[in-house]
Amino acid sequence: MADAPLLSARGITRRFGGLAAVNGVSVDLWQGRIQAVIGPNGAGKSTLTNLLSGDLAPSGGTLHLGGREVTGWNAERIARQGLGRSYQKTNIFLPFTVRENVRLAAQAREPQQPWNPLRWWRDTRDAHKNRATRARWERAIELSGLQNRLDAVAGAISHGEQRQLEIAMTLATEPRVLLLDEPLAGMGAAEAERIVALLQRLKAAHAMMLVEHDMDAVFVLADHLTVMVNGEVIAGGAPAAVRANAQVQAAYLGEE
Ligand SMILES: Nc1ncnc2c1ncn2[C@@H]1O[C@H](COP(=O)(O)OP(=O)(O)OP(=O)(O)O)[C@@H](O)[C@H]1O
């Protein structure tokens, strides 16, 4: 394991008018570890994810990514700094094939270059860039286990495969930090098992934060568990210790 977290949030806060949706939360994400965040509806889990990805600007606190302060950066800049996220609401283009979706995600990472009059140079650069992009999307498809579904239309594959595709699209930008918002939502047991195996495969090379309601998966996957209620962290630590915490049982797990 690395000797410093890849992502570190300190006292991160987001207010919506009078409501502190996330209030002074600190999170460290380490390569080779999965950090799960659980909590009842409205606890602030999605808002926290949006703060870490730059989709929302914090009202307070600091954010570091890869050793660099990125507080207040927008989502695109943070993504270029090595963060990838999946969304609860899917980003997939349903009429396109699996391959096209992942290729587009890989291309989206390319910085848009201004027109260059030195055409030979641009062609050389483009050929080089295209090879790099291709290597990225091919690797993302392989990692996510979708090699046999390359030419399938995204709208026609199963719900579980669509979630795999969404993870492949996230991986196509080669992030070191992965934020996954309910990757198991709406899945049957067999599909959930496939995604759990995928996340276990991705763990060594990434720092991961997983927001998930499926407690079986959380306890299989998580190295560290954070429990949020009303925008605040009420408990954090090894999953077994957190499960035994009376406050957590009363606030959340007891409701299951
Ligand atoms: N854009 C917004 N404007 C105003 N209030 C918001 C906004 N986004 C979230 N909230 C409020 O912030 C609180 C936390 O919401 P959030 O969606 O982060 O919770 P959550 O833990 O992700 O819930 P769920 O499990 O249902 O997704 C809620 O009270 C919600 O109504």
From TrEMBL:
InterPro entries: AAA+_ATPase, ABC_AA/LPS_Transport, ABC_transporter-like_ATP-bd, BCA_ABC_TP_C, P-loop_NTPase. Coiled coil: none annotated. Pfam families: ABC_tran, BCA_ABC_TP_C. GO terms for molecular function: ATP binding; ATP hydrolysis activity. The keyword Nucleotide-binding applies. SMART domains: AAA (SM00382). One of its GO terms (cellular component) is plasma membrane. CDD domains: ABC_Mj1267_LivG_branched. Residues 7-255 form the ABC transporter domain. Keywords: ATP-binding, Cell membrane, Membrane, Nucleotide-binding, Transport. Gene3D superfamilies: P-loop containing nucleotide triphosphate hydrolases (3.40.50.300). This is ABC transporter ATP-binding protein. It comes from Paenacidovorax monticola. The lineage of its organism: Bacteria, Pseudomonadati, Pseudomonadota, Betaproteobacteria, Burkholderiales.
